[in-house]
Structure formats: structure tokens, C-alpha cells
């Protein structure tokens, strides 16, 4: 989970039956990492959990997970908090997983207004979402940067699956590493 706070979404995935050899939380805040380590320590017998520092703005410092062959990078409303990505952000991220056989990204993020054609498909939602992102200094370039990353193949985009009607609607984007 990329930027997952104390890791509640990983716990949700576990409870819903999503099996993993290890659940890994990557979180920027010390408080989020401390809280996750405390909570997950109560469940050591049920699941393997680890937590590391992670910052979208300093991907060079991200740990490398050498022994993994299959990985899913997951985020839910964490990318929104990165106003703008460095040009090479996703190339750096992918380089961290060059040894992985199968790498996928699953993102539930408020990027609906960034998706091509969305302005025409739903102009009211588009306007609300853009305004919300501008007002909160949320991300404006995730889709553009990711779609221009040569080693990424965007497999699925479902725009506005959760729409609160006041902006910040959530879309699902799934990508895989292109070999």
C-alpha cells in the first residue's frame, strides 16, 4: 500500500480474503508507521506485515524488495496529496521493481478529471472535480505522467466509480509493467 496511513486498507484486503505472502505498507508519516506496527503486532500469528518509509517526492529512498517475484502496488487516495510528480517519477518507481516478474499497479484515486474524454462525458462532474483538486492543492498530473511512462501499460480505467457529488470522485486505474 503506497502511502496507506496506518494500513487499514491492507487489513481490509486481508479480512476480505486477499491472500499475500506479506502485506507491506509504505508510509511517509512516522505516526502512521508507528500506529501500523502497533496494530499489526497484535496479529503476528495471522499475517506477515512490514512497514517502511515512503515518500512520493523521494522515490530514490524507497526500499527495494529483492525476494519478491509478483507484486501489486496499491494506493487509495494517497496520490491525490502529491500536487505534481517529477517527470521521471514512475520510471524511478518501476526501476525499484526491475527484478519482479509480474508488477501491477491498482489505484483508487480522485483522478477522474484527468482521464481523457471525461470533460465531454460528464462536464458537471469534471468541473466539480477540477475545482476540488485546485482548492485542495491535489494532484493534477498522475494520469498524464503514468500514461507517458514507456514501461507502463494501462490495462483498465473506470472513471468516477465513487462520486460524492461535491468533487473528488474516485476512479480505478490498473496498469502492468510492460516487458
Structural write-up:
It contains six helices and six strands; from the N terminus they run αβαββαβαααββ. With 179 residues, the chain is α/β, with parallel strands linked by helices. Strand 1 (23-27), helix 2 and strand 2 form a beta-alpha-beta unit. The mean pLDDT is 91. The strands form two sheets. Strands 3-4-6-5 form a four-stranded mixed β-sheet, with no helix packed on it. The chain has a two-stranded parallel sheet with strand order 1-2. The protein is 28% helix and 25% strand. The chain is globular and about 50 Å long.
Order of helices and strands: HEHEEHEHHHEE
Cross-sheet strand order for the largest sheet: 3-4-6-5
Beta-strand content: 15-25%
Helix content: 25-40%
Query: How many helices?
Result: 6
Q: Would you tell me the overall average pLDDT?
A: 91
Radius of gyration: 16 Å
Largest sheet: 4 strands, mixed
The chain-level structural class is: alpha/beta
Number of strands: 6
Low-confidence stretches: none
Distance between the termini: 23 Å
Shape: globular
Sequence-ordered SSE layout with sheet pairings:
Layout: H1 8-15, E1 23-27, H2 30-41, E2 49-53, E3 70-76, H3 89-95, E4 102-109, H4 118-121, H5 123-136, H6 142-147, E5 152-162, E6 170-177
Parallel strand pairs: 1-2, 3-4
Antiparallel strand pairs: 4-6, 5-6
Which key features would you list for this structure?
single chain, 179 residues, alpha/beta, 4-stranded mixed beta sheet, two-stranded parallel sheet, 6 helices, 6 strands, 25% strand
Amino acid at each position: 500500500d503506497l502511502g496507506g496511513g496506518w494500513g487499514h486498507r491492507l487489513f481490509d484486503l486481508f479480512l476480505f480474503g486477499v491472500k499475500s505472502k506479506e502485506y507491506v505498507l509504505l508510509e511517509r508519516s512516522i505516526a502512521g508507521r508507528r500506529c501500523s506496527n502497533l496494530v499489526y503486532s497484535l496479529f503476528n500469528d495471522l499475517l506477515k506485515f512490514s512497514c517502511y518509509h515512503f515518500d512520493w517526492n523521494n522515490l530514490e529512498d524507497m526500499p527495494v524488495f529483492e525476494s519478491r517475484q509478483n507484486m501489486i502496488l496499491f494506493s487509495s487516495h494517497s496520490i491525490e496529496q502529491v500536487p505534481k510528480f517529477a517527470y521521471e517519477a514512475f520510471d524511478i518507481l518501476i526501476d525499484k521493481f526491475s527484478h519482479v516478474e509480474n508488477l501491477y499497479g491498482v489505484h483508487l484515486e480522485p483522478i477522474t478529471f484527468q482521464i481523457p474524454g471525461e470533460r465531454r462525458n460528464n462536464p458537471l462532474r469534471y468541473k466539480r472535480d477540477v475545482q476540488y483538486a485546485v482548492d485542495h492543492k491535489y494532484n493534477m498530473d498522475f494520469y498524464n505522467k503514468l500514461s507517458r511512462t514507456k514501461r507502463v501499460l494501462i490495462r483498465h480505467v473506470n472513471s468516477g466509480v465513487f462520486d460524492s457529488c461535491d468533487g473528488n470522485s474516485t476512479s480505478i486505474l490498473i496498469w502492468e509493467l510492460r516487458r
